[in-house]
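[Automated response] Your request has been received and processed.

Submitted sequence:
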Amino acid sequence: MKRVIHPQRLFLLDAAGALCTAFMLGFVLIRFEEYIRLPSDILVNLAAIAGSYAVYSFVNGLLFAQHSFWRLAMRFLAVLNFGYCCVTSGIILYYCKMMTPLGIGYFLLEILVILVLVVMEWRAAALYDK
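Generated structure:
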């Protein structure tokens, strides 16, 4: 059997990552909008989505031992994260002529990290025995 991270830790890791993303988008990048060249309303909306994912992941991480439907919650989180990557990719494509290489690079790196997390979440939901 392949080694997987304990699902409770994975929920909490996702929560921490989503919180970092929300902070970066909503507080850091918005202050450096001229270096990213992505409208602030887009950054705020992406930060709000990341913040809501952080809450979802944190709650599931805390309640992990108390519910038996964690596999469904983990798969749902993986789908949400994949959807976030698709939305972010669409935003990059739509605004690519306006965005700076730094801004595009930041979002491509964010997408890469989240996609690795999606694979880990899907694998944990499929392989891990509680």
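Summary generated for your ticket: Residues 18 and 111 are 12 Å apart (CA to CA). The mean pLDDT is 93.
If you did not submit this request, please reply to this message.
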